[in-house]
Amino acid sequence: MIIKLMKMKNQIYKSIYSLMVGFLLILIFGTSISMAQSKERTRLRSYFYIHSNGDRQVSFLLTAGRGRNTQMVENAVLDVEIDLGDSTLFLTELITDEEGAADLQIESGYKLPADEEGITTILASYGGNDSLRSASTDIEVKDVFIEMSFDIVDSVKILMVQANEYNTDGEIVPVEELDINIGVQRLYSVLSIDEVETDEDGVGILEFPDDVPGDSIGMITLVATIDEHDYFGTVTKSQSVNWGNPVSYEVKPLPRQLFSDEAPLWMIIGVFIAIVGAWYHFFLSIFKLYKLKKAGEDS
Amino acid sequence: MKKLARNLETPSRQWYMWVIILSLIVLFGVYALIRQIQEGQIITGMRDNAVWGIYTANFIFFMGLSYAGALVSCSFQLLRIQWAKPLLRMAELITVSTLIVGAPYILFCLGRLDRIHYLFVYGRIQSPITWDVIAISTDLVFCAAFLYFTHIRDFAKLRDMEGLKVAKWRKKLYGILALNYRGTPLQKKYLHQAHDIMAAIIIPTAVIAYSLLSWLFGMSLKPGWHSTIFGPYFVVTAAYSGVALLIIIMWLYRKSRKLEGYITNKHFNYMAFGLVLLTMAYGYFTFSEYITDWYNQTSQMSALLGKFTDMSQYGALQLFHILFTMFVPLIILGLPWFRSINSITLVSLFIVIALWIKRYLIVVPPLETPFIPIQDVRPEYVQYSMTWVEISLTVSGLALIVLIFTIASKIAPIIPVAEIEDVEDTAKPLIRFQTKGA
Fold it and tell me: How many residue pairs from chains A and B have C-beta atoms closer than 8 A?
């Protein structure tokens, strides 16, 4: 009976031991699995810009999390490559800043490897780390050239915008049906004037209004913009011309006011009287002391 | 005179110890100031939102005490109030010492002290700050001159006193400062004229100067500041705090110098009556200020008043201020069975503390409650909290005032003895009322 009880006790101990080991194993593996699963999702986005001087820029933005919990990932290394069809060409490594952004600058004139349609596919990838998952993106880009020319026909100001691109043979050809926004640079933003669409010659024509204010000699800066095109991205071209109405920015002198450089006369007179009145009495009393001293000497 | 003059003789060891302790506190304040100049405003609690803190509260507080001292001493002088003669010098010393200590506090608020001269080079006469600089500097010169005028007869007595055990240079100094005063009728006449002229000009200067200080706030579009009654309110508050401080100083000198014969029960009672009147005036202005703000409040004003009633913010300070400036003084000083020299002094002490708190409540909470709240900044840039530097400079300021009193009362008697002893030398009243047929 005692042996039986001892055996049962041993079995109970073994069972408890097995359960504890099992629990520990589940705990360790479960935590590792959940840690692996708890890596945060990341998202890598890309944008293409062509600046007024012809320089191109591919911007990448790396974020982690979703919705309101989205955070910018800084100091992340991005590998940038060009897709050559059956292989890739490594371009560079970029590191994201505190805003999660990294920019690839391509000087004007530098020709990127492209497919038969003149399209370059740029790939970017982020390898991830212990807490963030990997992410990648690709963007198809193509060069476009915008030129602006100015003419006055019968006192009407005519703006011609020419858009060209490279064809498969590397020749420059016009771009058809391209929407280009025309605006004037103001102090903080671009004032939109109108939108033109290019014809089969790649030309868009706009009758420029007469009532746009310029600087003191009528100079304005015209800005032609293509917004987020599928291949050309966001393209900007700006050029100055004296098509604005000269505006005189001469500041008229302010009258004597509280807020102007010169105080109102009544205030100056009032303060003057108060100061002179007070100090006159001070010196009068000092004079009395002088007389007091003198009287002492005389006595 | 001889009894009081004994206090001026060779100082005791305790006196030197006391001066050394006060000097060390002042020097620590200087060290704090040097640290502030070296490291900038970052080591103070002043930030983008609350650009002012206890320095400005101290500035208004000490300026108020100063103007009150001037108002009290000059009014007593002009009105020929005989019983108040023993208090004149204390009131004048309050004026000069608090003016010397208080005025620099506004400079401590400047981020670039090295550009202080710009105030004079580029100062605009339209700015209340320019008015204030002119008024304070003028007032300082006038009050210092008035303090000297009231000393001339005592200096003459000390010069002529035989057996006075003081250093030779001090005797010589008394001779120079006495301006050949021999007490001739002509000299008395000139001295009274000089006194009256200075007293007459100091009263309006002090009222204008303190009103100007109030307009620094009143002319700002901030909740809690933009008020038309701030001018008279500040002047009444100044007089209130000044009279309370004068009572404390009377008590201290009476006890420490055994001046029971000069500073009597009557003086405390009369000053207490004055304090009761000022309590009522102060209560009236405070009520007017808050009732008008509360009745037609904007959202920011509502937020500000909310802070004054919230015990986790400024509610406790506000409660202390209201209790000890309005209710406690009326009960203790107004009812005869509570009134004694000690109770009057104790209430005065609480009034002075409560009025410093009031200045803090004028400066800081409105700055923390602007019409356009500052956004996207750390909380410490919005809320004010004082640092060791500001506390050190405040304590050292108080120590400097005590030091000035300690040294000044060693140079000349704290009671204008010559004026009291010379009973016949009472100046003619400035205003005489004559009845027809009299």
Answer: 79
Q: Which residue of B has its CA nearest to A285?
A: B194
**Interchain pair A259, B187: CB under 8 A:** no
Closest residue on chain A to B206 (Cα): A278
Distance CA B155, CA B177 (A): 7
Q: Do B197 and A284 touch (CB under 8 A)?
A: yes
CATH number at residue B64: 1.20.1630.10
Of A141, A164, A196, the residue that ends a domain is A141
Residue A46 has pLDDT above 70, yes or no: yes
SS3 (DSSP) at A58: strand
Q: Are residues A114 and A133 in the same domain?
A: yes
Range of the domain at A129: 42-141
How many whole angstroms separate alpha carbon B76 and alpha carbon B210? 20
Does residue B302 lie in a domain region? yes
Of B181, B182, B193, which has the smallest distance from its Cβ to A288's Cβ?
Answer: B193
Question: First vs last Cα of chain A: how many Å apart?
Answer: 136
pTM: 0.69
- Among A275, A279, A285, the residue with its CB nearest the CB of B194 is A285
Domain that holds residue B15: 2-374+381-421
| Within-domain flag for A34 | no
- The pLDDT tens digits of the residues spanning B371-406 come to 877 776 776 677 888 999 999 999 999 999 999 999
Name which of A254, A280, A285, A293 to mutate to probe chain B: the one with the most chain B Cβ atoms within 10 A of its Cβ. Answer: A285
Q: Please state, in angstroms and rounded to a whole number, the distance separating the CA atoms of residues B403 and B334.
A: 34
Residues of A in contact with B124 (CB under 8 A): 261, 263
Give contacts of B70 with chain A, Cβ < 8 Å.
Answer: none
Q: What residues have CB less than 8 Å from B204, skipping those under 6 apart? A: none
In chain B, which residues have pLDDT < 50? Answer: 437-438
* Strand intervals (E) in chain A: 42-50, 56-64, 71-72, 77-83, 88-95, 101-106, 120-126, 135-141, 145-153, 156-166, 172-174, 179-185, 190-197, 203-208, 220-229, 233-241
In a domain, B257, yes or no: yes
Tokens of B405: 């009193």
**Count of structural domains within chain B:** 1
